[in-house]
Design a protein that fits this description.
CATH superfamily of the largest domain: Type I PLP-dependent aspartate aminotransferase-like (Major domain)
Helix content: 25-40%
Mean pLDDT: 95
Bound molecules: 4'-deoxy-4'-aminopyridoxal-5'-phosphate
Number of helices: 12
CATH class of the largest domain: Alpha Beta
Radius of gyration: 21 Å
Order of helices and strands: EHHEHEHEHEHEEEHHEEHEHHEH
Distance between the termini: 27 Å
CATH topology of the largest domain: Aspartate Aminotransferase, domain 2
Length: 361
């Protein structure tokens, strides 16, 4: 058995999700666009799933488009909105599924502004003022867990340019940190199933009512801007994951784990960023030891931790660089990310192994 502390990379699927998916695959396998009664049943179940997820987002009046994950959702917004006239703003340290498309557009002559982060991992609101048509920011940073002040970011933008399309990558926040897409006045938001004990390969894009995007794929008419036969098991599994994820209870449990982790850290280990989110903690190691070396040593004992966003592979974290952390120090980090299944005993085990390993360096 592993001690799994890399839940920002992905989570173990909840058994209730697996049950729904198996049942759907064998009983509700029909194409939701076919015209006989069992297909209508499937279509209705997909609509119920959509409403469950929309309700959790607080976006009852908006629409929800199912996608293959948050990577696709982010790309849909960026390529569905960008024209040569679109002025785009994004934060340095965004997830690669936002940063890479934006960088691609920048390299192709589009008008892109990428703003740095403060040393605590948050955006400086003073940098955000300006005239933009499309603004992209992550609510929770996947490397440091830092929660951006979304309300302040949106309000400051709306003051100078009320018509900007404001997109939030809420992948690491959804279900974990309470937020409401309508109260925040977002035009769109990306979410993903596998970060909340749901299935992989399913995500969604929330769209405020009346917001238009050009489709990035053309095909059938299942979902107006996202063609392709719906993945019934994954859609229904995603909604089940949302139903069983108890935001308040889980937040309280994970907050206690986080507090325990922080108070038990071995000497010389500190935390990067403001760390205002108990789910993700970025640990800075001292001396010369590399995060990768410690990760490998922990894995021998079955303790699995991350270095940062799994999507960056072995590349150094842009987030840490944007916070002013040197390349050398950025290689000396571990990312610990919790899920509701984790226990205090697992944290103790991690801390005692970490202390043992660090003593050798
Ligand atoms: N945005 C953020 C902040 C993420 O952490 C991730 C997953 N690492 C994604 C987007 C991409 O999500 P998916 O794996 O569903 O494509």
């Amino acid at each position: 058995m592993y001690i799994y502390l890399d839940n920002a990379a992905t989570t173990r699927q909840h058994p209730a999700v697996t049950d729904v998916m198996a049942k759907t695959a064998s009983e509700d396998f029909f194409n939701s666009s076919a015209l006989y009664p069992p297909s209508v049943v499937v279509k209705n179940k997909i609509q119920v799933a959509r409403e469950v997820i929309l309700k959790k987002l607080g976006g009852n009046s908006g629409d929800l488009v199912f996608t293959s994950g948050a990577t696709e959702s982010n790309n849909m917004v960026i390529f569905g909105k960008a024209t040569k006239r679109t002025r785009i703003l994004c934060l340095e340290g965004e997830h690669s599924s936002v940063y890479a498309p934006v960088k691609y557009l920048k390299d192709n002559g589009y008008d892109i502004t990428i703003i740095p982060l403060q040393s605590d991992g948050r955006a400086n609101l003073g940098d955000i003022r300006g005239v933009y048509d499309l603004v992209l920011f992550g609510l929770v940073n996947s490397d440091t867990g830092t929660i951006q002040d979304a309300k302040a970011i949106v309000q400051s933008l709306r003051r100078s340019f009320p018509k900007a399309h404001i997109h939030c990558d809420a992948t690491q926040a959804f279900c974990k940190i309470p937020f409401n897409v309508v109260e925040l006045d977002l035009d769109s938001a990306s979410i993903s199933g596998h970060k909340i004990c749901g299935p992989k390969g399913i995500g969604a894009l929330y769209l405020k009512k009346g917001v238009h995007l050009d489709p990035i794929m053309l095909g059938g008419g299942q979902q107006p801007i996202r063609p392709g036969t719906e993945n019934n098991p994954a859609v229904l599994g995603f909604a089940k994951a949302v139903e069983v994820f108890n935001t308040n209870e889980n937040f309280a449990h994970v907050s206690a784990l986080h507090a325990h982790l922080i108070k038990s850290l071995p000497q010389g280990v500190t935390v990067n960023g403001i760390n205002n989110n108990p789910y993700i903690t970025n640990l800075q190691l001292s001396g010369r030891v590399l995060g990768q070396t410690v990760l490998n040593a922990l894995a021998i004992d079955g303790i699995l931790v991350g270095l940062g966003s799994a999507c960056s592979g072995s590349n150094k974290s842009r987030t840490l660089s944007a916070m002013g952390i040197s390349d050398q120090r950025a290689k000396q980090v571990l990312r610990i990310s919790f899920c509701p299944e984790n226990t205090a005993a697992e944290v103790d085990n991690f801390i005692s192994k970490l202390s043992e390993i660090l003593k050798k360096f």
